[in-house]
Amino acid sequence: MKVLVVGNGGREHALAWKLLQSQQIEQVICVPGNGGTASMERCQNLPLAVDDFEGISQVALAHGISLVVVGPEVPLAKGITDYLQSQGLMVFGPVRAGALLEASKAWAKALMQEAGIPTARAAVFTEAAAAKSYVKAMGAPIVVKADGLAAGKGVTVAETLAQAESAIDAIFQGQFGSAGNFVVIEECLIGQEVSVLALTDGLTIRPLLPAQDHKRIGEGDTGENTGGMGVYAPAPIATPELMARVQTEVLERAIATLRTRGIDYRGVLYAGLMIAPNGEFKVLEFNCRFGDPETQVILPLLATPLEDLILACVQQRLGEMPPIAWKGGAAATVVAASGGYPGEYEKGKVITGIKEAEAAGATVFHAGTKLNQQHQAVTDGGRVLNVTGTGENFEQAIAQAYAGIKYIQFEGMYYRRDIGYRVLSLKS
User: Fold this and answer.
1) What is the pLDDT of residues 177-200, one digit of tens each?
2) What is the assigned CATH class of domain 192-320?
3) Is domain 330-426 classified as CATH 3.40.50.10490?
């Protein structure tokens, strides 16, 4: 079968890489793809925008595509699944109504409250003065969120009232575009964040391995929030007992409530959790797609063929599938970012050392890259590469990722040198 993957990040490179490991997959077409997908055998990039639904449909039909896998949240929120399904194509990813789980934090919060899903107390505002009054009444620390899609950067954990008010002003003054039409203000939860990605056909929902991301740009989890600077799986803090509760109290309740709203949700349901020191948890947010960079550590550990799981979701027969099989061990990814990220950064810097990193045992997933006219990989985004290591334990996986990233160079390159510090400290 032929598969079309929509997107151009590290997540999409990982999806294409995993799919192409199967003998069932004849070819993967990536729209638009990146320098990594352009370099794989049986993989082709086509230069279309992720929201060019008509163009993607024409390409899929012309190439005899059996399945479309949508990576990013933006085309899902704009209704790519609805459009492609209307053209007779099979799509993995929720319809537009379901994608509101990520596209509107206010909508998702209301659904969680209706479903009885544990989540932070919150209020929604449409103008700055009322939001600031609420913040003054509640006090700091407090969390200020742009309601809509903001590429993982629309959340401020404000330690002071001044920071909260500044974040409110930035959102309402258009820093995040239409994502700032509403502001969601939440209580500040203390603990560790864990990403639980689950696959669902709208009736059955099965979690993948829990992962722990490192959102802050700086070591020791300091500085600005990013799309993720590194991640590992499976996260030990998400014990089997906790995952059993997440299954019943979060995942199954979410899918059931979506059904009561008439939404047939098929794809990934991604719950971002905060686990308190006492072991209790609350949902910070939902996402409607594979996580990035979580996908880059989950898929290397997946033993069940990915296409089998995806097809079971799309065809609503996930409940008939055997339990998801895993390879065991651990995986870790370190993100190599452009200098200046998550703020302004330059593009077009030549990247060297990728082959050497892979020869050292790491798997390098391209994120913000493209090939120049000399077929060299050059930087084309904030998060440039995801260097992934695997091993029998976290020490081996993390060591392999860092052994690989030492070979990689480009002007202005930055990466955190403490990815996995929590799990490593458990062993000391």
Assistant:
1) 775 678 999 999 999 999 999 999
2) alpha beta
3) no
